[in-house]
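Progress against Task 2.4 (sequence-to-structure conversion) is shown through the following example record, which the project officer requested during the mid-term review.
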Amino acid sequence: MAKGDFTRSFAEWMRGRNGADDVARLSTWVALVFFLIGLLAANTVCEVIALALLVYSQWRMMSKNIAKRARENEAFMSALGPVRPWVVSPRAAWTESRSFKHLACPSCGQKVRVPRGKGTVRITCPKCHQKFDAKA
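C-alpha cells generated for the chain above:
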C-alpha cells in the first residue's frame, strides 16, 4: 500500500469524527505525566490512571457526536479562566507573558495589555476611556 493510500484512507475514516480537541490533548498530556510518575515511583495506581486518561482521550477523538464534544470542550475551556491560554498554546502564552504585561483598569476592571520594559506609561482604558498611569 502506498503512503498516499494510507493517508487518504485514514482521512476518510476520520471524516465525521471529533478529532483532537483541547480536552483530548490535555488529558493525553496529563496521562503522560501520570505514566512517568508511575514508572519512576513504581506506582501501579498512577499507571492505571494514565491508561484511563488515554482511553478517554481516544474515545473523545473517535466520537461521532461532534456537537456534544464541542459543547463539553467549550464548557471545560471556559471553566479554566485565566489558565486557558496556557492550555491552548503554551508557547504562545509564554511569549505573550515575556513581551506584555496585563493590567486592570482601576475604574472598571477591564484587562489592558501593555508592552513590558517601557517604563511608566499612560494607558487609556478601551472600555470606559479612563486614563491611568502604570509601570510596564
